[in-house]
Amino acid sequence: MKIEITILLIFFAVSICALHQQNLWPLPNSANIGTDQFTLDPTTFQFTAVGYKSPILTLSFQRYKNLVFLNFEGEPPSKSESVLSSLLVNVTTADEDLDLFTKEQYSLRIEANGNAILVAETVYGALRGLETFSQLVYTSVGNPVSYIINAPLYIVDEPAFRYRGLMIDTARHFMSVSFITQILDAMSYSKLNVLHWHITDDESFPIESVTYPLLTKAAFSPQEIYSQADAKSIVEYARNLGIRVIPEFDVPGHTTAWGKGYPQLMVATCTEGILNPTLNFTYQLLEGFLTEMAKIFPDAYFHLGGDEVNDHCWLNDPQVSEWMDLHGMTTFAQLEQYFVDQVQAIAVKLKKTVINWQEVFDNGVKSAPTNVIEVWKSSDIKNITSAGYTAITSYKWYLNHGCNLYGDALWDSFYKVDITAGLNLVEKQRLLGGEAAMWNGCVDETNWEPTVWPRAAATAARLWEYTTSTIPDAESRIHLHRCRLLERGINASPVAPGTCVGA
């Protein structure tokens, strides 16, 4: 699809400086953009590493050259006296660790004489700066097309939050590896940095286990299973975009699929899937499986669910009740605490930090102080952080409520969410960030993208920007960003009446 975004038709009443700042999503912390114009020649322009030379950077140079000159058809632009021939990229350290503490700040400068340099401490900061640079280049209307960037230009930028995520659900509808890599591409265009991959649930178990091969008996079909090589390729693809992959294996509830291969795991009298917390085999299988997954997913965090556990299933089962009596337990909270403690011990062995849904906290379970609680059904961030826990939130950022309807809200409500409201300084420091969440009950590859984008981009901006813009300003920018997503092959929905010229 070829799209020429004719910005003057949309923003004819604003200055050129402000006009081209309107291209940026999310907004940088600080940006000064002049009115001089430099052209870029697709046949000669180069990204050049002048600091640490990383294979990640090499891949990104080719990717962003393709994105900047997406509509180039082989005919050089008209000659210009002011040509930007290259962007120097100076990564100042060899640190390629990708984790919660990765530094993503960068500065981008283009001088009036055409010297251009991007400086970042890490290669991942350079990736964020390259995305900004790509958004600053715009095209003229004409034949041949000219690629233009304004100067002098100086941008200093870094994210407001360290955790900026998107949750995908491959248990309710399988999504191919190629589709997931396209999701990762789209995430990078909005500077998201965490893929929360909800892999298993009641409906299916689509990831290969060599240790416990019968688990995939619950896959929708033999063709809808991620091999371990598939999962590793997704993790590596994400890493090259500066995106962490955090897998979720939701336990002890939402586990019907686990029981299809290993029925002895389940509470016998319960009609819904829930692991039996009293059996040694439950923890033996969990340890073996999670040990296997830890070799595929190197991130320091594992999301282990904990939501919507049916207390009646545990308390009304004769075998579970007898075990509780023998161990001096009388309440659901005590049994849940026991389960959480056993799983925590496995996580410690694997050197993983656990993320749980908020029910674990709501039920009074004492988690390890380092664990992270994810808020999803109420604004409990203050209660959780004031209790000393770190938190992330997807509250008001659900993309799926109402099944085929637009989840929590339209894009502007996503953009208005202030996750720090009511928090004191210490509590704010314990809030790592948040994520948009797309549960796949009524979406698959046919309608996933227009359901998610660009609303997830609104969440991305809210988590990157230190100061949000007005809704009219943001609407102008997200409209252009939606057009950019379309141009880059992402089937994003419109946010308002209008057009992407030439689409």
Helical content stands at: 25-40%
Tell me the major beta sheet.
8 strands, parallel
Model regions low in confidence, pLDDT < 50 over at least 5 residues: 1-20
Strand order of the largest sheet: 10-9-8-15-14-13-12-11
What is this structure's SSE topology?
Layout: H1 7-10, H2 16-21, E1 30-40, E2 46-49, H3 55-68, E3 86-91, E4 106-110, E5 116-120, H4 123-136, E6 138-139, E7 147-157, E8 163-169, H5 177-189, E9 194-200, H6 228-239, E10 244-249, H7 256-261, H8 280-294, E11 301-303, H9 311-315, H10 318-326, H11 332-349, E12 353-357, H12 359-362, E13 372-375, H13 381-386, E14 390-393, H14 411-416, H15 425-429, E15 431-437, H16 448-452, H17 455-464, H18 471-487
Helix pairs in contact: 3-4, 5-6, 8-11
Quick recap:
With 503 residues, the protein is of the alpha/beta class. The protein is built from 18 helices and 15 strands.
